[in-house]
Write a sequence for this structure.
């Protein structure tokens, strides 16, 4: 037992020292494991504790950004702690783009918003595994915002001679429905478990940019502009909110989740999972919004101290034919799912104290690094609850909590990775997630 504990400690120590966080996760929910059938969303390996589960609609929300609203809106100088004659607060807030420019670490600000609704979930226990059926609706927003692009532009970038504004953002906004089947099988006297989920995907809507698209404005010493664009276009497909459009099943694809767990020695288990491998092909209502490729296009620029408007100046370029910007019908294209992965090692002490070290990666964002966590759960027969220490992308520690408990045939589950943020000021939140729902569970610790 001592050797096992040393192995867990060494693994956790190595993980925490050799990685840094750069993405959003659902680690606290992942640590609920086999207690909750919806955990197959983060690991397809599922060995149920009950014969049959029927899931009521559950909700998952996750948000991550490099800066908070309090970083953007700061108190205007000279109005700090001021009040009027009646004692009312007269502090004024102003947009502080210099502050958020300074806050962003690296070349990009990573904005991520993940929403999932578990519409249907059925899970059946088998003698050496499980079978599950599910339908989910998911929406993912991933925006790599270039620091030298929009943030530079908002931060009076057009008023700085010698400045170069390079917009090479990578944006993908996708909403879709997935339905499918999950299957887990145990081998080697139940020490090894392999899980697979196969999903049919129906795309609802997508908006995305071309990965190598760029638009650059160089501010010359006389305040004129030199404009260069390359492959600068965005595309949309599926529903875009117009009244004359109808939902189509032509935007479709196939996805997979795969995972495995192995008990190295009694009570010491390693587990790996890769989720959302696959893509959606968009065929219906494909449109492209583009800027033509131009090289060293000269423009007199805009006097920002006058009433001239930057957008009006750009519109003038288009109207005069110097810059072609328009909408056109697009051809079909594919977008990949937001692939994520988990790697975990857990040890159960005295059959109720479970310790776990976990590493999470979001593979959709090119420069994202691992999120790391150490957690403890009290693993009782019908209830588990625990805490998780998570290293976030600012290098600070977040506190995660989770709970799954059975009350008669009803099971309640709840998890968040950011309890400390949710209990603090809303305007200071940079990362937050929460997941909750209800299940009906039957035949606890019984075979069908």
């Amino acid at each position: 037992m001592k050797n096992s504990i040393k192995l867990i400690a060494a693994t956790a120590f190595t993980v925490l020292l050799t990685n840094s966080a750069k993405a959003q996760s659902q680690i606290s929910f992942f640590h609920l494991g086999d207690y909750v059938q919806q955990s197959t969303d983060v690991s397809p390996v599922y060995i149920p504790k009950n014969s049959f589960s029927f899931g009521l609609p559950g909700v998952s929300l996750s948000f991550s950004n490099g800066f908070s609203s309090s970083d953007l809106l700061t108190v205007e100088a000279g109005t700090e702690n001021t009040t009027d004659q009646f004692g009312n607060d007269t502090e004024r807030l102003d947009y502080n783009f210099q502050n958020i420019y300074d806050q962003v670490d690296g070349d990009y600000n990573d904005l991520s918003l993940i929403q999932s609704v578990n519409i249907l979930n059925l899970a059946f226990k088998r003698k050496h595994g499980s079978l599950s059926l599910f339908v989910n609706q998911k929406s993912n927003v991933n925006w790599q915002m270039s620091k030298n692009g929009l943030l530079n532009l908002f931060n009076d970038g057009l008023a700085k001679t010698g400045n170069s504004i390079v917009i090479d953002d990578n944006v993908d906004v996708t909403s879709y429905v997935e339905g499918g089947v999950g299957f887990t099988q145990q081998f080697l006297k139940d020490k090894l478990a392999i899980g697979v989920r196969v999903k049919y995907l129906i795309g609802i809507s997508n908006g995305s940019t071309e990965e190598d698209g760029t638009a650059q404005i160089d501010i010359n010493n006389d305040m004129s502009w030199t404009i260069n664009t390359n492959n600068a276009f965005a595309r949309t497909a599926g529903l875009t909110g117009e009244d004359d459009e109808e939902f189509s099943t032509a935007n479709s694809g196939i996805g997979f989740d795969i995972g495995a767990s192995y008990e190295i020695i009694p009570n010491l288990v390693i587990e790996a999972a890769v989720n959302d491998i696959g893509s959606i092909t968009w065929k219906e209502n494909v449109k492209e919004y583009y800027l033509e490729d131009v090289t060293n296009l000269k423009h007199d620029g805009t006097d920002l101290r006058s009433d001239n408007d930057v957008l009006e100046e750009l519109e003038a370029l288009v109207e005069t034919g110097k810059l072609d910007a328009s909408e056109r019908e697009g051809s079909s294209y594919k977008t990949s799912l937001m692939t994520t992965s988990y790697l975990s090692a857990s040890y159960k002490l005295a059959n109720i104290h479970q310790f776990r070290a976990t590493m999470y990666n979001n593979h959709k964002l090119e420069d994202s690094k691992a999120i790391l966590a150490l957690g403890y759960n009290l693993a009782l027969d019908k209830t588990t609850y625990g805490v998780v220490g998570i290293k976030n992308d600012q290098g600070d520690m977040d506190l995660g909590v989770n709970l799954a408990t059975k009350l008669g045939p009803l099971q309640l589950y709840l998890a968040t990775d950011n309890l400390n943020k949710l209990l603090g000021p809303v305007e200071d939140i940079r990362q937050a997630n929460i997941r909750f729902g209800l299940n009906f569970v039957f035949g606890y610790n019984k075979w069908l």
